[in-house]
Amino acid sequence: MHNTLIKLKELGRNPTMNILSLMLILLLVLSSLSAFASASSPAAIGSQQSEAAHNAWLKDRFKEQHREIIPVVAVADIFFMCNKERKVDSADYSLSDLVTKLDRDTLAEKLILCLQEDTMQSDTALNFGLLGCFHEQLSHLPDEERQQKMQFVRKAINNLSHAERKKSFTQCVTEQAIHYLK
Q1: What is the Cα–Cα distance from 135 to 34, expressed in whole angstroms?
Q2: How far apart are CA 171 and CA 177, in angstroms?
Q3: Containing H/E element for 120?
Q4: Which residues does 143 contact at the CB level (< 8 Å), separation at least 6?
Q5: pTM of the full structure
Q6: How many helices (H) and strands (E) does the chain have?
Q7: Of all helices (H) and strands (E), which one includes residue 36?
Q8: How far is 164 from 3, CA to CA, in rounded Å?
């Protein structure tokens, strides 16, 4: 936990990472609530602790790769939802493809085109990032349930301060990046 706080403080120095931090926090909060609701047995609790320990091990073992992939994941989240809403690029990208198959420069160029006059530090970009990150986090759910939860995420975003959204994005992206290390 202490290492996570240090990393989040370090991320706060980088504007791109600021956006990521907010996305992560919101995702983690929602994921934690969902996991808490479904984890009523001791076996489920042990499994969650085991997964948390495994994620910590992954972060430690692949520190450098994790640090390098976080900005890519953040930009991919922002572009994914920006493009979904603004339809700037006709291709229908998956978040996974944006992170793993598209080179960084092309992804950055696509994001700049999609954001238009909005900047990476704007509330609009931050909101796109949060929505993109949660879209992936909820992708395993049936369509109807995912859509309901995404509506909840949208409402939550509207009620959170910029700082809270930023922190959520960072946490969400950090956890999301772990997935790409597995």
Answers
A1: 15
A2: 10
A3: none
A4: none
A5: 0.68
A6: 9, 0
A7: helix 15-38
A8: 20
Helix axes 2-11, 15-38, angle to 10 degrees: 140
Task: Report which residue type is found at 44.
Answer: A
Tokens of 38: 């479904």
Query: What is the secondary structure of 121-180 as a DSSP string?
Result: TSHHHHHHHHHHHHHHHTTTS-HHHHHHHHHHHHHHHHHS-HHHHHHHHHHHHHHHHHHH
CA distance 69 to 170: 13
Nearest to 101 by CA among 88, 114, 110: 110
C-beta separation of 27 from 168 below 8 A: yes
Write down how long the chain is. 182
Q: What is d(CA 117, CA 140) in angstroms, rounded to the nearest whole number?
A: 33
Please check the confidence at residue 141 and state whether its pLDDT lies above 80.
yes
pLDDT digit string, tens, across residues 88-105: 999 989 999 999 999 999
DSSP assigned state of 82: H
